[in-house]
Amino acid sequence: MVNEAVTQWLAKKGLADRIAEHTGSIDTVEHAAEQIGCSEAEIAKTLSFLVEGKPVIVVMAGDGRVNSAKFKAHFHAKPSMIPRDQVETLIGFLPGGVCPFGVPADIPVWLDVSMKRFAHIHPAGGNEFSSVCLTPEELETASDAVGWCDVCKGWEETQIIEQGDG
Known about the structure:
Elements: H1 4-12, E1 19-21, H2 29-36, E2 43-51, E3 54-61, E4 65-66, H3 68-75, H4 87-91, E5 109-112, E6 122-123, E7 130-132, H5 136-142, E8 147-149, E9 152-153, H6 155-165
Parallel strand pairs: 2-6, 3-5, 5-8
Antiparallel strand pairs: 1-7, 2-3, 4-9
């Protein structure tokens, strides 16, 4: 049940062996963490927004939430998620499996700094039953990301707690 287009995309990057298939759905951060066996924060959720009427993808840590002020400062627009019934048409993937691999070339992919604190992160693999295990640097290469941004809130507190426990 692997998405063939994503497999081919990642094969060109030398990363197709990082795809994992799951028996249960990874359609939410919670479900993905359960299936993969990692923390919810290590899930790389791929969100799709409309900025000036055009799609933009932002990938962020599973414990991050969009900070409207930061988003507006970076994109010069309020965050407006693509309506669920338009995601597949505009991005090419169904909700629950949206990933940053092989999206139309005119859609910029941004990576949020909230993911840089992890050795490995797990974005979806093009459907709700597959994921990809990558380092943040590999995700940057694999997604052809425009760059890194800082548009999240909520994860900073988690980072401090995790560092304090170690």
